[in-house]
Amino acid sequence: MDFALSDDQRAIQEAARDFLNDAANTDAVRAAAESATGFDEMLWRGLGEMGFAGLMVPESHGGLGLGAVEMALVLEEMGRCLAPVPFFETAVLAVQAVVGAGKAGQLATLLPHLASGTRACFAGTADRPTLSDNRLTGTAHFVTFAHVAELIVIATADDSLVVLEADMPGLTIEPLPSLDRTRRFATLTFDCAITPDQLLGAPGSAKAAIDRVLTIGAGLLAAEQAGVAQYSLDATVDYAQQRVQFGRAIGSFQAYKHMLADMMLLIEASRSAAYYAAAAIDEDGAELAEACHIAREYVSDACRSVTGDAIQLHGGIGFTWEHHAHLYFKRARATANWLGSPDQHREALATLLFKDVA
Fold first, then answer.
1. Which of 66, 102, 111, 243 sits between 20 and 30 A of 153, alpha carbons compared?
2. Tens digits of per-residue pLDDT, 60-115?
3. Closest Cα to residue 313, out of 228, 233, 236, 229?
4. H helix or E strand, kind and range, residue 64
């Protein structure tokens, strides 16, 4: 497997970084985080114009027709800036759900909308509502960016996938207080009559598609986490060169350099694991699930460690509300338990590795 990026992949990475450095700078992200919705509409509009939402949508349905490696490159840049938009929810989770379970007519209808910037969210990563007698009832907790979504993709307890518009009668969306102010959560309550057109495929037939969405989502989320960790290290290195103590830049002290080196090693290993998972997704072979579980369990722990060390190495200023370090630490903590905790992914990995052991 060749880990060297192609010229086209580097161009995508650079385009994403240049755009986000301008459109999602620290001031813009903090303004969105402190707003009522935690959502940057101008940034979302720009991402749609850049075509990033359709990265993994086939060209025949209005997307770019690219793969998970290209998506990982963009997600890493998203993590660097804590982009307060439902990009992951739309471009990864919702797109993969539609591609995995949708009928031909649904692909032709839904994918062009998602590729052009229709905001979506995915419910069913924790508890799931019930579909019975064409009626969807129950509650889904911890649904990210549901309060600004236009389409909601729901995984049900009986392994169906349902797509609803956000203004569907019988659907209630209640925003929740969230640790990570740049990725808000909500509780969804359902009491909705469902038509066949709102079902992706046949009732109860989407278990494989749901499992694949959650597995691919876990692997690609690791790329975003690697970006979160990388920015934390970069900001700490900059601070180490500027802050002077005892007549010297604090970055010259040996203990400080050792911690920076440890952070760098964690990030390099994290990036390797995330890119390997993305490559395995594109290969779509036997290693896909294993690679995604490894990436998530390792990178989640590494990201929490790096962002915590960044606060410590910034000294007194790192603990203040005004400094941006706490935003990255909170993203690391909140994301670590979304789409499965590290322990859950280690358990899933152990099950895969030892399933044939008597």
1. 66
2. 999 999 999 999 999 999 999 999 999 999 999 999 999 999 999 999 999 999 99
3. 236
4. none
CA distance 326 to 319: 7
**Residue 151: strand, helix, or coil:** strand
Phi/psi of residue 259, nearest 5 degrees: -65, -40
- Spatial CB neighbours of 101, under 8 Å, sequence gap ≥ 6: 161, 200, 201, 205, 206, 209, 210
In sequence order, the 6+-apart residues with CB closer than 8 A to the CB of 243 are: 249, 250, 251, 315
Dist CA 271 CA 19 (whole Å): 21
Compute the mean pLDDT over every residue in the chain, rounded to the nearest whole number: 94
| Dihedral sign computed on CA atoms, order 115, 278, 311, 252 | negative
- Straight-line distance from the first to the last Cα atom of the chain, in angstroms, rounded to the nearest whole number: 32
Tell me if residue 156 falls in helix, strand or coil: coil
Cα 221 from Cα 92, distance rounded (Å): 9
Q: Count Cβ neighbours within 10 Å for each residue of 211-243 and write b for 16 or more, e otherwise.
A: ebbbbbbbbbbbbbbbbbbbbbbebbbebbeeb
Tokens describing residue 206: 């989407």
Half-sphere exposure of 138 (CA within 13 A, CB side): 18
Where residue 1 falls among pLDDT bands split at 50, 70, 90?
A: low
Rg (CA), the chain: 20
Q: Are 138 and 157 in contact (CB under 8 A)?
A: yes
Which residues are within 8 A (CB) of 208 and not within 5 positions of it... i.e. 6 or more apart?
Answer: 100
Please report, as a single letter, which amino acid is at residue 192.
C
What CA–CA distance (Å, rounded) separates 264 from 267?
A: 5
**DSSP structural state of residue 86:** S
pTM, two decimal places: 0.95
Looking at the chain, the whole-number percentage of residues with pLDDT higher than 70 is: 99
What is the Cα–Cα distance from 87 to 54, expressed in whole angstroms? 10
